[in-house]
Amino acid sequence: MKEDQKHIKAFELFYSLNGKPTLKNGTRVAQECHISLRTFWRWYKGLNWKYKVDQRNIENSKKLAKKTDETVLDIKANYRSEIKAQFNILKKIFRKNKNTIITVKF
Length: 106
Description:
Blueprint: H1 5-16, H2 23-32, H3 37-46, H4 49-96
């Protein structure tokens, strides 16, 4: 079966309904796309929508993982720069007060 625009529109609606092949989802796609429920199931099987849903979920997971990794790296970089800035302030204090004994308790 060759996929065209009406199939893509139906698939996008189906995917937006969590891509679960339920009677409720099939009925909604059929109604909104002006097709029969039988046609929906034929498209679902013939155009391999289960595979397409799985592939899109994998792609979305990879994008989310990449974004999460970038966010974590940004947070770490900001944390390191904040530590460095605080350390520089502390070094200036130590240089200014060379003869003062500072006791640190933990």
